[in-house]
Amino acid sequence: MQRTITRSMLDNFLGPVASWYKLTIIAFLLINPIALWALGPFIAGWVLVGEFIFCLAMALKCYPLQPGGLLALEAVVLGMTHPETVYHEAEANFAVILLLIFMVAGIFFLKDLLLFIFTKILIRIRSKMLLSLMFCFTSAVLSAFLDALTVTAVIITVAAGLYAVYHKVTSGKGFDDDHDHADDTGIGNETRDDLEQFRAFLRNLMMHGAVGTALGGVCTLVGEPQNLLIGELAGWQFIEFFVRVAPISMPVFVVGMLTCLAVEKFKVFTYGTEMPEAARHILEEYDRIEDRKRTPAQSAALVMQAIVALFLVVALAFHWAEVGLIGLAVIVLATAMTGIVHEHQLGHAFSEALPFTALLVVFFAIVGVIHDQHLFLPIIDYVFTLDQHTQVPVFFMANGILSAISDNVFVATVYINEVKAALDAGDITREHFNHLAVAINTGTNIPSVATPNGQAAFLFLLTSALAPLIRLGYGRMVLLAFPYTITMTITGLVATYYTL
Length: 500
Description:
0% strand, single chain, mainly alpha
């Protein structure tokens, strides 16, 4: 009986995931205290960061919250960070947490409008290059004035809606039937190739859109959270921030758009996948049926969603309130005006973002280890030993590499505070401080597209419910981001060296 209970406990650990993955996580938990004792907190801290990245890379095997959470809890127990540090990181990022809780749910209540608009766009634009450029460019422009997570939530909602329509019909069901989109058992062998092609098509569009959020986010004071922090310490207003960053951000923007066209034109790094004709026919039929059967009440709901969407854009552009609070306003307006009044109708909207919100707080614990164990300090100290002209491009690359490993907001915070302290101490001039601030901003925004770790929008996409449906794992995201990483980073580095 005892053996049965013990075996059951092992079986219950991380549920149905593969045994090798369970054993790997157990090995991590056993190695960490030994590494801390034998190698010291600095090396043990880097080991922990590597283990957490592994959990993110295996997101399709097991959601990173559980294994990553166990590693974070162990780090706190071992004293590698403290609950107060984790709370401080969460408090400093409270605006992001509010955004995830309310804005993503708000976008959920606009999904009918988004699906209506983007279904027509995908049907009418047959050129994959033009469609890809539209996703990338639109995401960039919106992210420059809105928020990358909000824009990512929009494109996730669109892609999930399109996938749901196609998968349901391909499984032999009607447009209005209930269906589990994660279950491929109803897909016949003759249509399975089309399904894989449609998944690849959506992966392409999602990555173009995600990279677009980085291209636009680097440009303006409100584009990314660290931009606001850097601008505040530098004393830059909206226009000044844009002008100072433009010598790097504008060439990178142009190269990013050209990269989008190039990878689609030459079909490299798994880009260039066209929408299957069968999928196009299904979406065309869906669009015709929806238009034909749409009732006055449903049409009125679309109109109200469009008004609420306009309110969302204006409110975000003029920063009437914190993004999360605007999201709450969207929930209230969209549900009140479309007849959604029962609690069970509201619950589904929050199921997408709350697991990621919990994962983000776990991530803050890992960031706490980086902070408390000063894992980045040797790099910062080394950079300050270089001559001033060399410091600028090195700051760009150092911030980029560390952002790809860690989190761009945290890296920017660490570096800009160190640079501000050097300015206050009289060690550097104001002009050099301005150059370093631009290098930090562009460095944390541009090379960090290399991995899902670097930007919250990328991590959100990786851990979304859409990712396993379209088979978008960590490795695939890195591969799809690779051409952008190379072209954008080289352009940013050259621009940094010659213009600052």
